[in-house]
């Protein structure tokens, strides 16, 4: 497959970071002559950018492959991303997959396209290219563009933490970052493209500032990575970018979210009062088993600090249920702890054993039925938290950035503190920050979907 003007469709699984990278891959391939089409249309190539945080993400990859082949049975199926790095041979054996490319080469896919046969041969194992993750010592800038009013901007990748349940260091490598100068440059490019809001994303963005490029000394010894910049300096620099009206900080570890950052956001007109802070468990015993770098007291202090300077702030929480050793008493400790916190919503994950992680060999495994029951309990708690947070703001006027697209005659957008808002469609308000009076909310929470406000545009 060497000729250009091939059509290619993309599907992204997982996090905001994956979306930023898929968008960048698509732009690069477009420059090389590949024409992007929608995933549900016929295409010559389908590229699937995978996630492998949970077992369900692995299974979903197989479903997406089948869906692509239904659209175009003769198409070439290319798989990249975290799952491709962790289990290249497993993916290569999936019926219909033609090419698997790991972390080191996902931004250089076209050179591998040339190795694909002209005609699809069913029943043959796919070609795969993987690498030792320790060899990945570069940072590739990425951002999403063209599909949203807001953009996801990658500022950091990889992780040096050793949480016992997590495969991300195995899939993405060591912590490494862009430079502040280049992040600012990209933010300026996004502003010129009409983007109004940027979400800063990465694997562990609070660890921003480490550079791994060319980490070899003159004698061949590995040079210790240097941290010459930090996340606080980054957000201070971005706050000065002209043309971007809003920045959001995606998930940040509680031990890396410092008072100075919280105070800065509180005083900034551009950084939104919205934090997503992983908790994972409300029981110190479980946090220690997970090898998290904080205990409950640190988490309490972060929530209290945020609410002391921004009472209206939205705080999201990641939590894992069913970790080995999570007894009924320890799970109740988590439920009671989260219930006591002034937080706004939860992202609930059911623990699943991941190969090559420390937790996979732990005893005291929790039956899947109980894990699923606990997931349901915390999702119900999330609904109550969200209901309460929404109800607190009824009658207020808040600034809402409306998206470009129309949904059933309605505009949809987010307030500064991440309330999802709908209003009757008016093209004058698209891609604009508009003051909105919040009138009422509906108890329509399904699987974590935020309930809609009925509202009137404020004068």
Structure, described:
The protein is α/β, with parallel strands linked by helices. Helix content is 31%, strand content 24%. It has three domains: 7-131, Methylthiotransferase, N-terminal domain (Rossmann fold), CATH 3.40.50.12160; 135-392, tm_1862 like domain (pyruvate-formate lyase- activating enzyme), CATH 3.80.30; 397-457, Beta Barrel (OB fold (Dihydrolipoamide Acetyltransferase, E2P)). Strands 2-1-3-4-5-6 form a six-stranded parallel sheet, sandwiched between helices. A hairpin with a 6-residue loop joins strand 7 (142-143) and strand 8 (150-154). Helix 7 packs parallel to helix 8 (231-238) and helix 9 runs parallel beside helix 11. It starts with 6 loop residues before the first strand and ends with a strand.
Characteristics:
single chain, 459 residues, alpha/beta, Rossmann fold, pyruvate-formate lyase- activating enzyme, OB fold (Dihydrolipoamide Acetyltransferase, E2P), 13 helices, 22 strands, 31% helix, 24% strand
**C-alpha Rg (nearest Å):** 23 Å
Low-pLDDT ranges? 214-220, 444-451
CATH topology of the largest domain: pyruvate-formate lyase- activating enzyme
Q: Assess the beta-strand content as a share of residues.
A: 15-25%
In short:
The chain has 3 domains: 7-131, Methylthiotransferase, N-terminal domain (Rossmann fold, 3-Layer(aba) Sandwich); 135-392, Alpha-Beta Horseshoe (pyruvate-formate lyase- activating enzyme); 397-457, OB fold (Dihydrolipoamide Acetyltransferase, E2P), CATH 2.40.50. Helices cover 31% and strands 24% of the residues. The chain has helices spanning 16-31, 55-71, 82-86, 88-92, 110-113, 168-172, 180-192, 231-238, 259-267, 284-290, 296-309, 328-340, 368-392, and strands spanning 7-12, 35-37, 45-50, 76-81, 99-101, 127-129, 142-143, 150-154, 156-157, 176-177, 197-201, 210-211, 226-227, 246-249, 274-280, 314-321, 345-350, 397-407, 410-415, 420-424, 433-441, 453-457.
């Amino acid at each position: 497959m060497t000729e250009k003007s091939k059509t290619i469709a993309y599907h992204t699984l997982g996090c905001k970071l994956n979306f930023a990278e898929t968008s960048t891959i698509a732009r690069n391939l477009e420059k090389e002559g590949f024409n992007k089409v929608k995933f549900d249309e016929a295409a010559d190539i389908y590229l699937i950018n995978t996630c492998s945080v949970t077992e369900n993400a692995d299974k979903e990859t197989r479903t997406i492959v089948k869906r692509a082949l239904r659209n175009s049975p003769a198409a070439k199926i290319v798989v990249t991303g975290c799952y491709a790095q962790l289990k290249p041979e497993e993916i290569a054996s999936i019926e219909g997959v033609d090419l698997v490319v790991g972390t080191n080469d996902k931004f250089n896919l076209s050179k591998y396209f040339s190795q694909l046969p002209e005609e699809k041969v069913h029943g043959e194992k796919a070609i795969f290219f993987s690498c030792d993750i320790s060899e990945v010592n570069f940072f590739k800038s990425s951002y999403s563009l063209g599909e949203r009013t807001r953009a996801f901007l990658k500022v950091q990748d990889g992780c040096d933490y050793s949480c016992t349940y997590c495969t991300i260091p195995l899939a993405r490598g060591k912590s490494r970052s862009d430079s502040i100068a280049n992040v600012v440059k990209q933010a300026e490019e996004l502003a010129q493209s009409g983007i109004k809001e940027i979400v800063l994303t990465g694997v562990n963005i609070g660890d921003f500032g480490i550079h791994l490029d060319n980490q070899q000394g003159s004698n061949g010894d590995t040079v210790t990575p240097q941290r010459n910049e930090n996340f606080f300096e980054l957000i201070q620099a971005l706050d000065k970018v002209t043309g971007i009206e809003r920045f959001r900080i995606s998930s940040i570890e509680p031990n890396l979210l410092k008072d100075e950052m919280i105070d800065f956001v509180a005083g900034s007109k551009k950084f939104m009062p919205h934090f997503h802070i992983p908790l994972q468990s409300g029981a110190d015993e479980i946090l220690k088993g997970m090898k998290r770098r904080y205990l409950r007291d640190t988490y309490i202090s972060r929530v209290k600090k945020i609410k002391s300077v921004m009472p209206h702030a939205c705080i999201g929480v990641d939590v894992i249920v069913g970790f080995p050793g999570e007894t009924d008493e320890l799970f109740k400790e988590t439920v009671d702890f989260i219930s006591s916190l002034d937080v706004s919503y939860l992202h609930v994950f059911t623990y699943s054993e991941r190969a090559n992680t420390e937790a996979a060999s732990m005893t005291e495994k929790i039956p899947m039925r109980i894990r699923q029951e606990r997931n349901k309990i915390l999702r119900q708690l999330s609904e109550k938290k969200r209901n309460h947070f929404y109800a607190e703001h009824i009658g207020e006027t808040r600034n809402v950035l409306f998206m470009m697209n129309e949904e059933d005659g309605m505009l949809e957008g987010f307030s500064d503190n991440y309330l999802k808002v709908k209003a009757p469609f008016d093209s004058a308000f698209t891609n604009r920050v508009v003051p909105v009076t919040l009138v009422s909310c509906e108890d329509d929470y399904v699987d974590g979907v935020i309930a809609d406000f009925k509202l009137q545009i404020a004068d």
